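1st attempt posting a full record on here, be nice pls
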Amino acid sequence: MENRYMQLALKEAEKAFKKDEVPIGAIIVHDDQVIARAHNLRESKQISTAHAEILAIEKACRKIGSWRLEECELYVTLEPCPMCAGAILQSRIKKVIYGAKDPKGGSIESVMRMYETKGYNHYPETIYLECEECSQILKDFFRQKRMK
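the predicted structure (as tokens):
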């Protein structure tokens, strides 16, 4: 089940790649139904907060009609950055599943462990679902950038 949703997140990352955006995709699931999907649009929109997770959270909130996404799971191709990890906390997402670690900005385990900091009023469950395709699309994207 989790792998199926990660594959949908990867399809979103592929859309970003085709738009010359950093290829990260996110899916939000509620009651075993996809309620939001998004990919990075930072370059297209020229908005620093247009990360896949933020855009998916905004769509999910509109779909549910609440800022509380307590019964939702987020599948994302790359470990969330500090901004996205904070938005996940604020929206009360129940579970975060990510497919690749981010050694330069990951805030679940790679650079910092935001969800181990004491004092927050919500802590999502996190699962690293190692996905070679999630890592590979990023490697391919940046290799292509370096060649230009």
